[in-house]
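[recover] target loaded
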């Protein structure tokens, strides 16, 4: 265990008080550029069709805004304008590596966006009626108010690895696609969680967001950014948080008109996987079955 695996000292000190600051739970779902987005391709009419505003693609060679973080912060590219016949170029454009930057592709304009959905089951403390303004801000990132429920995320040193579940309301539509990049806007479809599943399933049939990375962030209210309050927060500190917990979305448990529930797994969860993955034979490795002195 390293120092990065432990909560910061100020966080521990606050929790030891008789009336500590409230715990704030934040969630991020990072979509996979390959699984959940189609690669860019030439579209110049005919059977290939043309691009339309709102279409989102991944570069054939993955582009990252920051590959040093975990999970890496990749970029996808949303069609934000077309002109004339809406034909793309005959070769892939040079896609940028900065969110918000654009690439010109003949008669198509692409804008780089992050394939990340950030959300929190609540609002900030500002006096506002706007969902954008009511979003929770932490570390310069914006977490959309969205009805969710979590279970099984408790940490334990005993027993099997946890298989926590994340339940997301299917009644309230997400507004993330209407946010500006500064407000947390990302390259995700608007609407309910089921509408998001429908979009990714067009790329990978039956995927249902499987393979996405879920990041579970825990901090305290007193450390949230200034944007969460009507006045300045003198204790804002985005370094004060518990270690991020990272899971993979392993399967969709249930989906109906009211909610969608996902089961998550830790990356080291290898239940049902046996090694070696294939049989090792003597004709490939002659030393198998022989003893050497």
């Amino acid at each position: 265990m390293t120092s990065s695996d432990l909560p910061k000292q100020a966080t521990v000190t606050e929790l030891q008080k008789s009336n500590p600051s409230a715990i704030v739970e934040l969630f991020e779902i990072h979509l996979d550029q390959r699984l959940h987005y189609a690669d860019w391709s030439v579209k110049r009419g005919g059977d290939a069709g043309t691009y339309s505003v709102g279409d989102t693609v991944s570069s054939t060679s993955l582009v990252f805004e920051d590959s040093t973080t975990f999970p890496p912060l990749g970029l996808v590219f949303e069609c934000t304008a077309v002109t004339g016949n809406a034909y793309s170029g005959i070769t892939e454009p040079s896609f940028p590596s900065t969110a918000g930057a654009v690439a010109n592709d003949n008669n198509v304009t692409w804008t780089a966006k992050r394939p990340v959905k950030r959300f929190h089951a609540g609002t900030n403390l500002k006096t506002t009626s706007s969902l954008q303004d009511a979003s929770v801000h932490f570390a310069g990132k914006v977490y959309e108010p969205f009805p969710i429920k979590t279970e099984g995320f408790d940490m334990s040193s005993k027993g099997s690895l946890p298989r926590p579940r994340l339940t997301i309301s299917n009644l309230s539509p997400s507004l993330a696609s209407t946010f500006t990049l500064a407000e947390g806007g990302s390259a995700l479809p608007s609407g309910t969680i089921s509408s998001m599943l429908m979009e990714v399933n067009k790329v990978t049939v039956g995927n249902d967001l499987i393979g996405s990375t879920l990041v579970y962030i825990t901090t305290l209210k007193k450390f949230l950014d200034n944007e969460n309050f009507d006045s300045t927060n003198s204790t804002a500190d985005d370094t004060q948080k518990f270690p991020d917990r990272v899971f993979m979305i392993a399967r969709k448990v249930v989906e109906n008109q009211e909610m969608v529930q996902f089961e998550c797994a830790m990356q080291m969860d290898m239940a049902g996987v046996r090694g070696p993955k294939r049989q090792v034979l003597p004709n490939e490795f002659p030393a198998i079955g022989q003893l050497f002195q």
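[recover] notes: Residues 193-203 form the longest helix (11 residues).
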